[in-house]
């Protein structure tokens, strides 16, 4: 180790602030709204509606992760989306259900999960001291 470089110490994690928690809850609710809107749009104009619904979710997840600067932003938005979509796929006691048993519904569900994972991994991880370079040994 050279004399001019000091070793970096790991910083302990702090509890999130109230504003950050409110942002996560807001993104969760916004993800639920995007899930409902996507469920209504995706069967309407079949390939275009599906692509529009998935693009809406991708925009929300990517925007959430960039706005909060962490993968947790995309995860909270995707969590709201996934909760609503899974609840909409469950059948009701009357025998009705929201999604038809077709390829578009499965593409919306599985494609939405894939989009959420991709958007969450696009955000760079935290770096100590905010340095843009990767840390080496």
Automatic annotation (TrEMBL):
Presence of the UniProt keyword Membrane in the record: yes
Domain of life of the native organism: Bacteria
InterPro entries: DUF6113
Species this protein is from: Streptomyces calvus
Protein name: Integral membrane protein
Membrane-spanning intervals of the chain: 21-40, 46-65, 72-91, 97-123
Keywords of this entry: Membrane, Transmembrane, Transmembrane helix
């Amino acid at each position: 180790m050279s004399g001019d470089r000091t070793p970096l110490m790991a910083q302990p994690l702090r509890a999130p602030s109230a504003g950050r928690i409110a942002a996560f809850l807001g993104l969760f609710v916004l993800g639920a709204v995007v899930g409902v809107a996507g469920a209504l749009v995706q069967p309407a104009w079949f390939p275009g509606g599906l692509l529009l619904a998935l693009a809406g979710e991708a925009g929300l997840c990517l925007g959430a992760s960039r706005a909060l600067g962490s993968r947790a932003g995309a995860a909270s938005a995707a969590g709201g989306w996934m909760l609503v979509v899974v609840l909409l796929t469950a059948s009701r006691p009357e025998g009705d259900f929201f999604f038809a048993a077709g390829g578009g519904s499965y593409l919306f569900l599985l494609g939405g999960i894939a989009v959420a994972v991709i958007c969450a991994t696009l955000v760079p991880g935290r770096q100590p001291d905010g340095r843009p370079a990767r840390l080496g040994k």
